[in-house]
Amino acid sequence: MIAEFVSFAAPEGDTREDIMKDALGTVAHWQANPELVRKHYLLSEDKRQLMGLYIWPSIEAAKRGHNPEWIAQAEERTGGKVSIAYYDLFMLLDNAAGMLVQYPA
Asked: What's the superkingdom here (predicted)?
């Protein structure tokens, strides 16, 4: 499994409510992606930085989800540069679900 962090600046002047409305507009797109396992929508404490934490089965799947066209539209929509980083998600502890999952290499 792969954890992908996608971050960019929040649009200048946007409130939390504006950001929520914009994020809700992306939900159907991500729900329709059969490769996406999970997405977390994150906003920095000062409400200036947005981040998506995505869980994918592979880096290739992540790169298909965030292809050059997606990056271009995100940068156009938000006015900020998109930054992407990938991590090997080797283990997940979920206290709410009472489970520990280890992922093979």
From this structure: Bacteria
DSSP code of 82?
Answer: -
Please check whether residue 40 is in contact with residue 92, taking contact to mean a CB–CB distance below 8 angstroms: no
Question: What is 2-102's CATH number?
Answer: 3.30.70.100
pLDDT in the model for residue 105: 87
**In whole angstroms, what is the distance from residue 92 CA to residue 98 CA?**
11
Residue 43 tokens read as: 């906003």
Enumerate the domain spans of the chain: 2-102
The token duo for 9 is 């600046």
* pLDDT(67) > 90: yes
Residue 9 β-bridge partners = 49
Task: Find the mean pLDDT for residues 91-102.
Answer: 97
